[in-house]
From TrEMBL:
Family as reported in the entry's similarity comment: Belongs to the RMDN family.
Entry protein name: Regulator of microtubule dynamics protein 1
Gene this protein is translated from: Rmdn1
Listed InterPro entries: RMD1-3_a_helical_rpt, TPR-like_helical_dom_sf
Entry-linked SUPFAM superfamilies: TPR-like (SSF48452)
């Protein structure tokens, strides 16, 4: 009888433990679904604010999630930090702080998901921004890394016209590099980065093919590159398109 009672009590305890375990699983599962839903909700809000040009509100929304493990949130936070740094109302000290913050967010995004094309794209952009504060040696030294991340982003998403455009900008910048900077680069590095206006032009056209008329700056650089190649007829065509592009953003107005 004692043995039977002990066994019955053991079964009851086991059943109780099992029920507690199942309840824990159910609650945990609900929490995970709820957390996932919350991330999607924040991303939806963020994309709406980005599309509306609400830079400061977007940053305030996303910076609350700076400790998130979600790469989609983190690269958006990096972009928001960078966009905030670009505003004329942002002080020089804040611009620098935001540039370094943005780079850290993209690093974390890549750690969380190496296959996220946007994380690679924004890592390249943010690394380039930080180079502006660290001098020409760092900027040139980072150039290959920047291009590698842009190329990886294109591998992961061949239809992303913006990243293709950025490779074009990379090529244009090194094709246009002044002689004295080339001399410094040759002194500092055994094989400094080089490119040509023809290579830049190829990427700008590839970007346009991927998404026609997607970006005023791509139209501008097509025109500028044709000017560098002394083709005034084609330069006029693309510069006219850039001039007539509807100005939705501050950058469009500058273009």
């Amino acid at each position: 009888q004692v043995l039977r009672k002990s066994l019955q009590r053991g079964v009851m305890l086991s059943a109780g433990s099992f029920l507690v375990y199942e309840a824990h699983k159910l609650i945990s599962g609900f929490a995970e679904v709820h957390a996932s839903f919350k991330v999607e909700e924040v991303i939806e809000q963020a994309d709406y604010l980005y599309g509306s040009g609400e830079t400061e509100k977007l940053y305030q929304l996303l910076v609350q999630h700076k400790n998130s493990d979600d790469a989609e949130l983190l690269w958006r936070l990096a972009r928001a930090s960078r966009d905030l740094a670009q505003l004329s109302s942002t002080s020089a000290q804040q611009k620098k702080q935001l540039a370094y913050e943005a780079l850290e967010y993209t690093k974390k995004a890549l750690e969380k998901n190496e296959s996220n094309f946007a994380a690679h794209k924004w890592y390249g952009i943010c690394l380039s921004d930080v180079g502006d504060f660290e001098g020409i040696k760092t900027k040139i030294g980072n150039a290959y890394i920047i291009k590698e991340h842009f190329q990886r982003a294109v591998e992961l998403n061949p239809k992303d016209a913006t990243t293709i455009h950025l490779i074009g900008i990379w090529c244009y910048s090194f094709a246009e590099m002044p002689w004295y900077q080339r001399k410094i680069a040759a002194t500092l590095f055994a094989t400094p980065p080089t490119s040509t206006f023809e290579e830049a032009l190829r990427y700008f056209h590839m970007a346009e093919e991927a998404d026609p008329n997607f970006y005023s700056k791509n139209l501008l650089y097509l025109g500028k590159t044709y000017l560098k190649l002394n083709n005034k007829k084609m330069a006029l065509l693309w510069l006219s398109k850039a001039k007539d592009y509807p100005a939705h953003t501050e950058e469009d107005k500058q273009v």
